[in-house]
Fold each of these.
Amino acid sequence: MNGEKFHSITVSRDTDAIVTTRVYHGSRAEMEALAAAHRIDEAGDPGWLKSIRLKPLDGRLWECEFKYEGAEDWDTISVPGRAWGKKVCQLRGATLSRPLEFHPDYRTKWNHCLFAAAGTNSLPSWYAGAVNTLIPAADAKKYCWGRDPADAPYDGDGRWRQLAAPLKPGVESYDLAVYTVIETARFRSASQAGSMAAGSLNRIGTPSNTFGIGGGNWKCDDAEVSWNGKCWIARLSWTQSGDENDWDGDLYGTV
C-alpha cells in the first residue's frame, strides 16, 4: 500500500498467551483501508487477531494497531478458516435410540417369553444363547417364543404355559452413543446461506471435517439459517450412524 510503513512490533508473554502488537503509520485513507481488510479473530502472525485500533497522530499521519494473541507453538496449530463461505466444524456427542435386537450382545430372552407345551418342564439347551425367535425343528412342537404372556398358544392339550419370563421386560430399545458434527459458515446474504442448507436435510453425506472419526456414515439431521447481527450463518448438523449399520441408502437420499 503506497505510503504505508511498518512502524514497530512489540511482543509480551504471560501464563496464557503471547501477545504481539503490530503498529503501522500512514495516511488516514491508507490506515482505514488496512483496518477494513482484517477481521477480529482471524489468524495472523502470530495468533488470532484480538483488536484493531485506529487513531490520528500529528499532522496527517494516522496509526493502525493490530494486537494478536497466540501460543509458543502457534505455527503448528491448525487454525479454522474465517473466509466467507468457509465451513467450520464442531464435534459433539449424541445418542441414537436403536431397537434392542440391534444390540451386539442381544439375546431373545431379553424381551421374549418362552412357552412350553404340556409335559415340557425344562429349559432347552439353546435358550440362553438364542438371538432370534426361530425354534429348532426338533423342538418346534414343544417350545414357542412370544412377546407377552397372552401370546401363549393353544393345542389339543390346552394352553401352553410360560416357562421363562423376559429378562428385560418392557425394554424395546437402547441408547447408542454417536458423534454429531455441527458445520457452520458465514455468508453475506440469506440466499447464499440458504444454498448451503438446501438439499441436505435428512440426506446422507459427509461433513467437511469428521475429526478423524471412522465407522458408519453421516446423515444431515438438522439445518438452520440465521442472522447473528453481523452476517448470515448457515448451520448443518450431521449425525454418525454409529456402527456397521450405515444409514440406509434405500431410505435416505444422498447430498
Amino acid sequence: MIAQVANPYTKSAINDRYVKNLYLSKKTPNDRAISFKVINRSINAFVEQVVEQDIKARTALDAV
C-alpha cells in the first residue's frame, strides 16, 4: 500500500511512521519479558537469604 503513494514526501513519511510503529510494537514490557521472572525470583531468593543470615548473625551476637 505504501508503494502505491504517488507523492515521494508522503511516501517517505508514511514509511518512516510504519517502521517506527513496527519497532515499537516489538518491544516487550519488563513484566512480559522472559527473563523478568527468572531475575525476579533470583532477587527474591537473595533477599530472603540476606534476611535469614542477618537474623542468625544477630542471634549469635546476642548469645555471646
